[in-house]
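About this split. The held-out portion is used to measure sequence recovery: a designer receives only the structure tokens and must propose an amino acid at every position. Recovery is the fraction of positions where the proposal matches the reference. Here is one held-out target exactly as it appears in the evaluation file.
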């Protein structure tokens, strides 16, 4: 039986209870959503005592299923003001699940100026003070905690951006090599941890055991089928060979790669930052492709990037970072981008949000596109908490307001990721209507990218299916989201409670309804389900397209939601 651990930082109490029977099929995002809607006042201040941080492994995390150990972290977002789930790889989801935990709920706030660490072991949990961690980056934090609690511990932590309660602050999770390079990056969840005075969660893996299915033979058979599908996928081969950097060429060709802060969809110097250039530098410097962020991954989409002296710099130089810190800022140097990536990981800041923020700043005299040294210096200002840095650390919308800049590419306060949606309009529908704010992982739609028609149903189905994947713990790159029959044959034998395909779909449908309900109660309305108005009128080269899906169509995505209007 999976359990829920509730930690009250104000009262210094720890309470452990079994999850209710109705949560048998719920994990990850769906379980998180149900707790948030039931227990967090939608109108509460995101950085106040009534907000809660909820951490939930996917349902399949900790089983023998490969590439299925993702972790959901959520709260009311200080960036969007609405519900937020941020999905992350690394080892925490697997180990928490193998220790029997279904959900970790952190409530209250520590009143002392000191910091606290939550230590989780197989049969116990305790809160310990750790004033020595104040102001440390994630890498030094992890090193200090490993020295104190053992080299094998798995760590969830925040950097100084989280301590300073910046709305672009991330939550870091250690990867398969113990490095804090996997991030629940979007929505400013690191700031919520920082507001509670919680610097880190340390998980001792001693006693962790793979989860046993109720019907082990049937589960094993379905896992083999799932694994075969993932391993034989052309997507898997592409990612193993190119990492996500392979998407640079894909989006450049499609005209959907942000360039000079979303003023163009292709980059004339893309060969300087694409997968071929990345692989060339990795070969020269002794890095590696095919890196895994979690144990048992068969996709291996990540990489290890070394500096020019052959020293480790960052794990996982991903497409989003390459583009938002590269073509988006007119920076055509992978070394600069990797230096920025390391700093963002260490300080604990979202590379998407901060890349967009620097794009906004380029409309002032404080930053010029293409200035590599200035970009690095600004990242350091954010991490060090200068006056300008504290402004930028609050994200693109706040920066735009302070400097009087109206061309800000965001929805519900959250910057669009590394896709120009005028050239991929189905994704634009998702970015506009997702309760999570603009987010490509909320439901990617790539069919008929330049058409204005047919995206309502595509986006709705994609958003539902993505919630299912996030709830089961599946990596986005498995590509498995609509295979409800396969999920039936996995969930049933694992839990002993057999679902129908309709039950599987309801996991995603009902969780989305809960997210929409939370946001409605927080004050969101149809007007929040819109892209920035300039996207409707400014043609984006090279396709010279605008986002012309009508508002009435956007309102239909959830307005025609059966049973949940």
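Reference sequence for scoring:
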């Amino acid at each position: 039986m999976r359990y829920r651990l509730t930690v009250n930082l104000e009262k210094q109490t720890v309470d452990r209870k079994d999850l209710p029977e109705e949560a048998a099929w719920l994990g990850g995002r769906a379980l998180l959503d149900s707790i948030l809607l039931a227990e967090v006042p939608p109108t509460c201040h995101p950085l106040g005592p009534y907000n809660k941080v909820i951490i939930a492994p996917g349902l399949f995390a900790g089983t023998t299923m490969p590439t299925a150990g993702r972790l959901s972290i959520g709260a009311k977002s200080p960036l969007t003001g609405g519900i937020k789930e941020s999905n992350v790889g690394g080892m925490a989801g697997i180990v928490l699940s193998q220790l029997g935990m279904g959900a970790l709920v952190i409530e209250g706030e520590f009143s002392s100026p000191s910091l606290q660490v939550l230590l989780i072991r197989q049969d116990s949990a305790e809160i310990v003070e750790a004033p020595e961690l104040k102001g440390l980056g994630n890498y030094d934090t992890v090193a200090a905690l490993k020295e104190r609690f053992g080299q094998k511990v798995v760590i969830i932590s925040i950097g100084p951006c989280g301590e300073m309660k910046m709305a672009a602050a991330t939550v870091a999770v250690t990867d398969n090599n113990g490095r804090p390079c996997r991030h629940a990056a979007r929505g400013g969840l690191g700031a919520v941890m920082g507001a509670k005075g919680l610097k880190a969660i340390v998980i001792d893996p001693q006693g962790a055991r793979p989860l046993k299915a109720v019907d082990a033979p049937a589960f094993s058979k379905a896992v083999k089928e799932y694994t075969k599908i993932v391993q034989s996928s052309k997507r898997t081969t592409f990612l193993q060979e190119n990492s996500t950097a392979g998407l640079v060429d894909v989006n450049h060709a499609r005209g959907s790669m942000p360039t000079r802060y979303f003023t163009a969809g292709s980059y004339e110097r893309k060969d300087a930052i694409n997968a071929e250039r990345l692989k060339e530098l990795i070969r020269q410097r002794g890095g590696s492709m095919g890196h895994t962020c979690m144990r048992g991954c068969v996709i291996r989409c990540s990489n290890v990037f070394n500096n020019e002296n052959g020293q480790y710099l960052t794990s996982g130089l991903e497409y989003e970072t390459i583009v938002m810190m590269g073509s988006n800022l007119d920076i055509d140097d992978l070394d600069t981008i990797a230096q920025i990536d390391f700093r963002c990981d260490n300080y604990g800041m979202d590379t998407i949000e901060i890349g967009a923020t620097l794009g906004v700043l380029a409309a002032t005299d404080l930053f010029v596109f293409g200035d590599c040294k200035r970009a690095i210096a600004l990242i350091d200002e954010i991490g060090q908490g200068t006056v300008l840095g504290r402004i930028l650390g609050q994200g693109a919308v706040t920066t735009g307001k302070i400097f009087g800049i109206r061309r800000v590419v965001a929805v519900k306060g959250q910057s669009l990721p590394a896709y120009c949606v005028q050239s991929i309009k189905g994704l634009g529908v998702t970015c506009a209507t997702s309760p999570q704010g603009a987010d490509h992982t909320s439901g990617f739609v790539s069919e008929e990218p330049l058409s204005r028609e047919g995206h309502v149903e595509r986006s709705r189905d994609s958003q539902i299916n993505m919630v299912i994947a996030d709830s089961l713990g599946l990596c986005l790159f498995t590509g498995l989201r609509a295979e409800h029959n396969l999920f039936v044959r996995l969930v049933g034998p694992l839990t002993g409670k057999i679902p129908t395909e309709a039950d599987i779909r309801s996991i995603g449908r009902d969780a989305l309804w809960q997210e929409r309900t939370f946001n409605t109660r927080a004050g969101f309305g149809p007007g929040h389900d819109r892209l920035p108005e300039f996207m409707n009128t400014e043609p984006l080269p090279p396709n010279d397209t605008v986002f012309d899906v009508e508002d009435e169509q956007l309102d239909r995505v959830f307005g025609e939601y059966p049973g949940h209007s």
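Annotator remark: Confidence is low (pLDDT under 50) at residues 561-565.
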